[in-house]
Amino acid sequence: MLHVKGGTLVTAEGSKRADILCGADGKIAHVATTIETPTGCDVVDAAGLLVMPGGIDPHTHMEMPFMGTIASDDFYTGTAAGLAGGTTSIIDFVIPDSRTSLVDAWQAWRQKAQKSAADYGFHVAITHWNDQIYHDMKTLVEECGVNSFKHFMAYKNALMVEDEAFLHSMRRAAELGAICTVHAENGDAVAYLQQDLLSEGRTGPEAHPVSRPAAVEGEAAHRAITLAGLLGVPIYIVHVSTQEGVQAISEARLRGQEVYGEVLPQHLVFDESVYEGSDWLKAAQYVMSPPFRPKHHQAALWGGMMSGQLQTTATDHCCFCAPQKEMGKTDFTRIPNGTPGIEDRMSVLWHYGVKTGKLTPEQFVALTSTNTAQIFNMYPQKGSLAIGADADIVLWDADAERTISAQTHHQNVDYNIYEGMTVTGVAKKTISKGHLVWDEGDLRAVRGAGQYIARQPKRRNVRKPL
Ligand code: DUC
Ligand code: ZN
Ligand code: ZN
Ligand code: ZN
């Protein structure tokens, strides 16, 4: 048992002074203004700290096989790093190859994730369509605790889904009470522009953003929303990075369509200038998709979060070390796409969002935890501080500073995109299922302590089709 004493509770609904008692079952046993410490119960001093639901990162790629290599953070190192940054749950992605059934792939990912130090769930990627997939989706939703599917409109000749298959998948998911998520970039256009650039001899990382301009995301976001609208089903767009994307989502929501959008903190902080300069590796370290954009897109992303048109933040945490990035030394299209960041999401969002006055602490909780729990139907088990919820809690020091560096981070990767950045807002202590796993610099993550989050289907208001 753990008594979190003397802190200020912050949830998506509001803030109040209160104590929390975490039970031996890993759940919140009691919440009250003052609680008497039961005998034999450890006390965690939260005086002067904000006590918030642990972060949920709904978009990570631990040990993901991708672009001829495997992401370097595995389920243990990646989730442990998350705990050090206040994130207590992830939703990762099962990426089936064309020879493996969805259910077998899900099983293989469950196996890999056994080493997780924090709780985890899975979205399952649908890359094509056939009768077996139709049946497997039902098994996944009804027997495997999967209530979301992923679609890549990018990565032609690899993960890219055709529109017809996407429609089949969206209809099937809605029938089952699952939600579809989508990486919105026009994969045909990207492939075309990549070839164009290579044929002009533009082989370096500075060509990467040129091959995936904002319009490529805008078109795909519009198309995904239109296709979902044809069927009257909800859609969740991952890593929205452009004004065009925000606009497409906002307009659809104003029409009454159920559309959600996710933001990555790195898109709020970095712009396309990261690809300039003579240091090849440094530029390659920022190669991810969607790429970093001209600066003006950041205002649209902030506006979307402040107004509630964008609901979640994630990291797309996908680590590749220098030798992996160097696979694309002579051809930018072969640089493994991905940036690390699970450990830094909450601090970076607090520093640039709450400290600047753009977001309230309550909005911060909504954006880092509660909205995700609600959309993916884990609420109130996750994303809340209610009695009976999982005791996943972060004790936040709103005034402490830390300087981010690969020298001190816990992510299994040899660089940090935020290297040298000093941020205000630090996870002082993290509690996972009632256990203190991060205590002011002391990481006590336990390999295998993380449990699978079986997510139930959610019957949604299927709207009238367009
Ligand atoms: N984008 C990345 O940068 N990495 C993993 C997959 C993705 O869509
Ligand atoms: Zn059949
Ligand atoms: Zn993506
Ligand atoms: Zn991703």
From TrEMBL:
The keyword Ribonucleoprotein does not apply. The keyword Oxidoreductase does not apply. Residues 50-437 form the Amidohydrolase-related domain. Signal peptide: none annotated. Coiled coil: none annotated. Carbamylation allows a single lysine to coordinate two divalent metal cations. Its EC number is 3.5.2.2. GO terms for cellular component: cytosol. Its cofactor is Zn(2+). GO terms for biological process: nucleobase-containing small molecule metabolic process; pyrimidine-containing compound metabolic process. It catalyses: 5,6-dihydrouracil + H2O = 3-(carbamoylamino)propanoate + H(+). The modification N6-carboxylysine is found at residue 150. It comes from the Bacteria. Pfam families: Amidohydro_1. GO terms for molecular function: dihydropyrimidinase activity; metal ion binding. Keywords: Hydrolase, Metal-binding, Zinc. It is an enzyme of class 3 (hydrolase). Catalyzes the hydrolysis of dihydropyrimidines and of the structurally related DL-5-mono-substituted hydantoins, to produce N-carbamoyl-D-amino acids. Belongs to the metallo-dependent hydrolases superfamily. Hydantoinase/dihydropyrimidinase family. Homotetramer. This is D-hydantoinase/dihydropyrimidinase. It comes from Acetobacter oryzoeni.
